[in-house]
Amino acid sequence: MDSTKAPELPRVLLLLSGKRKCGKDFLADALLKRLGPNRAQIVRISEPIKRHWADEMGLDLGALLGDGAYKERYRKQMIEWSDARRREDYGVFCRAACRTIDREICIVSDVRRKTDVRFFRETYGPARLRTVRIEASESVRGARGWTFQAGIDDVQSECDLDDGGPWDLLLKNEHADGADELLARIEKLILD
User: What is the C-alpha to C-alpha distance for residues 188 and 150, in angstroms, rounded to an integer?
Assistant: First the structure.
């Protein structure tokens, strides 16, 4: 993308950040249902990474894009490979993911690095960005299937945005029955 002229779409980019199993994908999917697919879409920075990995290694892309054990088997290798690509071009995966944007509202469900935020700020301008940090305690994340893994949970892909604020919105996603309130707060942020 030409960084001197920002694309017309989207009108708003919602950048969701948070640790593994904090509920980013769940909230992104639920928000898309509320807003409707004619108005909004989800873009995942990890999709081009997983697509390459699936092609290169002969893996099941659908399973890599999912939220199961299959993806977790390859997570560390994908992180290491993608970090090497980012050292050559920090925006390579953001740029690839953005090629599919064709809606008024774009929900980026997996912002993990300061360079991700930098790419969106430089490409689309700060006025269009809404940044949301989603947090959940380790015990809640553990109940959702998370276990600490050295080389995954203590590296840049999980920790770079720990001090990346200020956020437009900081959400505590601790209770399954609290999703409607969280979604209403996100919706207000992007529609106001």
Answer: 37
